[in-house]
Amino acid sequence: MADLLTVVAEMTAKPGKERDLQQALLALIEPTRKEEGCIQYDLHAGTDNPGRFVFYENWTSKEMLDRHSASPHLTAFREIAGDLLSEPARILLYKRIG
Q1: Is the pTM here over 0.70, yes or no?
Q2: Residue 33: CB atoms within 10 Å
Q3: Helices 18-33 and 72-84, interaxial angle, to 10°?
Q4: Contact 6/92 with Cβ under 8 angstroms?
Q5: What distance in Å separates the CA atoms of residue 55 and residue 48, rounded to the nearest whole number?
């Protein structure tokens, strides 16, 4: 697991779209966890802002993450994201160093 790639994906719902965004994000979990290379794919909601969500993900490689990014379920989510998100998602990549 030396090359494990960690992703933190932060998203904030438009006012009034919190529940819709949560449902759309929850729908990504099952198919993503079945993808090759997915080690961890967990969704979190903000404690002070229920419309803020964070995916904490671990992938075996950048190649597997790229495949996930092109998956049908993530592609479908991107098509509706503009109606749900107050701003573009913030995607941060990390590599474990210790």
Answers
A1: yes
A2: 12
A3: 170
A4: no
A5: 17
